[in-house]
Amino acid sequence: MALLLLALLAHIALGLAATAARGSRSTCLKFSPSHIPGVSVTAKTYFPTNATVDISNIFSSINTTGLPAFCRVELVIVTNATAGSFAITEAWLPDEWNERMLTIGNGGFGGGVAVSDLGGTAIPQGFAGVSTNTGHNSSAVDGTWAGPHNDNAIVDWGWRAVHLSVLAGKEITEQYYRRSIKKSYYLGCSTGGRQGLKEIQLFPESFDGIVVGSPANWMTHLQPWSIHMNLNVLPATSPNFMTRDMWVNVIGPEVMRQCDELDGLKDGIINDPRACSFRPETLTCRPGQNTSTCLSANQINALHRIYADYYEADQTYVFGGYFPGGENAFFNGLVGSPPFALPADWFRFFLLNDTQWTMEDYNATDITLGDEINPGQSNAIDPDLTAFVAPPRNGKVLHYVGWADQLISPGNSIHYYETVHEFTLGNSTLDIDDFYRLFTVPGMNHCAGGQAANAFGGVSQPRPLSFDPEHNILAAMVQWVEEGIAPSTVIGVKYKNDDVAEGVQFTRPLCKYPSTVRFKGGDPNSAASFTCA
Ligand SMILES: *[C@@H]1O[C@H](CO)[C@@H](O)[C@H](O)[C@H]1NC(C)=O
Ligand SMILES: *[C@@H]1O[C@H](CO)[C@@H](O)[C@H](O)[C@H]1NC(C)=O
Ligand SMILES: *[C@@H]1O[C@H](CO)[C@@H](O)[C@H](O)[C@H]1NC(C)=O
Ligand SMILES: *[C@@H]1O[C@H](CO)[C@@H](O)[C@H](O)[C@H]1NC(C)=O
Ligand SMILES: *[C@@H]1O[C@H](CO)[C@@H](O)[C@H](O)[C@H]1NC(C)=O
Ligand SMILES: *[C@@H]1O[C@H](CO)[C@@H](O)[C@H](O)[C@H]1NC(C)=O
Ligand SMILES: *[C@@H]1O[C@H](CO)[C@@H](O)[C@H](O)[C@H]1NC(C)=O
Ligand SMILES: *[C@@H]1O[C@H](CO)[C@@H](O)[C@H](O)[C@H]1NC(C)=O
I need a surface site. Which of 147, 252, 275, 296 has the fewest CB within 10 A? Predict the structure, then answer.
């Protein structure tokens, strides 16, 4: 016992020594980094412990108190001197630094520093946090800034602004604390997932570990698929169209009736939608039935297409389909009216340079054209991660996706994982499980939300139950990189109404693909009642 205590004290003492690099108000206000080419500091602001942090931009905002003290350093980074293009990047540097850097990604076409995650994730866990506006200012769904022919802005969004921000962020952080960064991590979802994958594919030395959620990494197939999904039901006057009320009150409940209990628990969550072959025919309208409560033949056909993978006429795979279980969110995704605006902007301003383009103009030749042009080189689909994951780098990838994603088919996450898997087997002696793990989240919508254990340390989520590696996918990554302990599960939490203040509704393990979560019996609100099999 005494020995154990001694060992513990020694551990704590070492821990303190290791975290001695710190910042302060005076370090912050006096901070004047020596010349970094292309980078200028435009502002430094010190936020003492528990100060009001009320910062917003067009993409992200935070308004909170209760953060540990930090220094906010605002930068302008020249991305192409000839063109005069630049990105706005911020580094948030906590006084109590854990000697690690965390780069945080964006979402959609979002042109704004992810201040909400810098404050919500990086600062409370002691990371030096870095995030960029990707070279333009816009909301997540607005792509008008990309055209006409705004090539440098498109490339900045595609990969360049993140890369230059990682380089600048490392310099700034090391100069601020006068100490080298021990490890460099990445966290992002959606476009943020794409940005993380892109960076390790192009610049394997940038990170030691990346945590990516539902990546939009196959832009040239994701966008055609999105329009294909729109066209399955739109316009709203089409006989294929289904109202929000029908999705939520007719189709959703029938999916649950058919598939919810396949996993042994009736809880409105389909643990493994791959096991659910939803038959919409059961909802066929009887003669005289109110058509708001049942389906026509056109609607049934549309549903078959919506839940199916998308192939070209020659059977070339384009993209996955929706999985059963996310019906409450699908209307807000790609099958509602008006539809999610981003895909049409991609066609108008990134690919075709035709501001008048509408989804009715879509045809499958756009897939080939997209693959040829690959606007901004934004696809991040290289299955060869060797330079990042092999020694000496030994980089790690943790990837998560909600089975009820309404904006990017979860099939895309599985597809990318499997392409890496295949490449690894075919070309190396590495084992994918030693560097890349994919966790599926039953019931979770795009990056967050849904009837799901949807908080586990990812971006845009409520805070995890604890910052420990058991409940927090970022800490699980740190533990994998620094101690060699790979996560086999992460425990997610569902807060009542997704509001931390209202308390815990339930906890659940997230399972490593291809396993899925199974109910063992006991309290269905406790993660301990589940296993991965
Ligand atoms: C910050 O706020 C917390 C919670 O109210 C409190 O426990 C702590 O003492 C405060 N710290 C400082 C330095 O004000
Ligand atoms: C931030 O919160 C404070 C206190 O709740 C409020 O007074 C202030 O208006 C908020 N700021 C913004 C930009 O909404
Ligand atoms: C920089 O911008 C100029 C002017 O738009 C362009 O000609 C050049 O190709 C760009 N360079 C790079 C590396 O993107
Ligand atoms: C983005 O907004 C900032 C002000 O917040 C402005 O200084 C900058 O010029 C804008 N960037 C672009 C590319 O327009
Ligand atoms: C549209 O403009 C972008 C940016 O200049 C260019 O890369 C792309 O090739 C253009 N698309 C077509 C179809 O010409
Ligand atoms: C048909 O069903 C819808 C949805 O339940 C309801 O709002 C509507 O009043 C019904 N129409 C008739 C004519 O009963
Ligand atoms: C498909 O769309 C492209 C771009 O809008 C157009 O140039 C082409 O003519 C279309 N092809 C067919 C067969 O409609
Ligand atoms: C092995 O690598 C080559 C060259 O990159 C690639 O063409 C091939 O598809 C890979 N093999 C597998 C099984 O993925």
Answer: 275
